[in-house]
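Could you show me some protein's one-letter sequence and the numbers that encode its backbone in two labelled lines?

___
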Amino acid sequence: MGDTFIRHIELLGYEKRFFPSQHYVYMFLVKWNDLSEKVVYRRFTEIYEFHKVLKEMFPIESGDINIENRIIPHLPAPKWFDGQRSTENRQGTLAEYCYTLVNLPHKISRCLHVVTFFKVRHDDMNPVTDSQIKKPEVFLLPKDSKQSLTDITGPIVLQTYRAIADYEKSSKSEMALKAGEMVDVVEKSENGWWFCQLKNKWGWVPAAYLEPMDGPDESEEQEPNYAGESYVVQKSYTAVEEDELTLKEGDTIKVIHKLLDGWWVIRKDETTGYYPSMYLQKAGEVNPVRSDLRNRSAPPRRSTIRNAKSIHKRGRKHISQETYRRNSKKYIQRQWNMQGNSQNKANVIIEKNEPQENKAKAQPAVPPRPSKDLILNRCTERTRRKIL
């Protein structure tokens, strides 16, 4: 029997799940060469990471060497806030992507990377749930939408951004820009480098040099999370600006604010500062060394761009490092207080219980001895003889 390969991938819809936190997963019906059909569930972030690795495996077919040779389809990067509306709107793009993927040359469509990604996993058969949390909500594509691919797909609409200053490229993979030029963003990477298109040119551009046409783009950024997410430093960096941090490879930190320009606000112990996101990896994840660590340096920060001219009257909101530090201290102090209160409550319970445990248990009362007349009147003959 030949190698296993996929004959067809059909997008069925998506699920809204509530454990371990609210998130969305897409449902795919995967048809294999042995005529079996399996349903698998994948987050869009997983699909996007799969897509990035596929492009690295086939640089010619992905257009990295010559854009005219690209046959691997585009896939927009995940949004900073992936809500239900974006999950629903992305279905057409995903359906078209899967259709194109399966029909690529066999060296791509039947490679181990593709086959492994769409194989059934344990959590596809037994998703992790919590009986105390409500069950997932299922949203299926309408039946009439599945009859024709054109019913659920359309052209991928790219966002247009404007350059706020001149940018000189430092490598062949980048693209130079002049202030005021308009580019279409094909891919947004959270490391601060965005892949853009300008007429017949393509290349990576620092996100810090771009602004949307309709207003400052901080609406795309997450709010600060002072609880923080655990990350591990993958590459050492020495601070250049006063508000940056110097860290060594292997250090564990907390990310408290993810910014679009690829410079995240992190917390090391009680100190906060900026650090390049491309040098960080989420704790617990095991990934090979990423190509962007080898091929590109950290992108410039917005605050370091000279002669930047925005077309918007309202500037970007800026949070000072003092605000980050103050709010981080408040969060850490609150956590300590909660832990202290919990410990005190436990101690109080123990103290209240100890006297009750040490206290001697009350002995049952001894009934009075019955009188002679009572025994003679109520007891048996045998008992009466003992007192006579």
In short: The domain at 6-140 is CATH 3.30.1520.10 (PX Domain). Residues 321-358 form the longest helix (38 residues). DSSP finds twelve helices and 14 strands in the chain.
